[in-house]
Amino acid sequence: MDLKKAQPPLERQLALLGYELVHLETAREGKDEILRLYIDHLDAETSHRKVTLEDCTAAHEGLLLWLDVEFPDLREKMGVEVSSPGMERPLVKADHFRRFAGRLCRVQTAAPINGQKRFKGWIGPIEGDSITLEEDGVIKTIPVEAIQKARLAPFDEDKTPRPKHLAARLTELPVDDGVETSVAEHEEA
User: What three-state secondary structure class fits 165?
Assistant: First the structure.
């Protein structure tokens, strides 16, 4: 299945159901191939609601008949799973990085940038088509199109030194006070 072609219609259909497609991937589990969709609420930035099992079930059921019409052979070839993005949620779009500014993340690029492919740093502002990360006190700029994979790293936040250079800029950014906490919230506590 060509995920790039399938993604726009899946995004539109999920939006009709009230969900955002955060990430789309295929995976192999034993002999079975799975199409996995990670969803969030369309109003997640303002409502801070968690994706529940009921949400995943509703999205799954809302997609099945539509998939049978739009992609008639899909369910014969692979299973379909709908999941919440979880604590280590994927960061795929520039808006995801914007929403989680001040949080720690891991980024892997397709090709080395200044000799480095793996980064772990605090998310700063988006500048043009690039994200900024503070890694070990150094500000690094990574073009969004160069990112192969990125995820939040919430379990490492307490053991990773806080950003120094981005700290002033991060206080100017809005804080997402949803399920996951931000650096600004840790500092206020």
Answer: coil
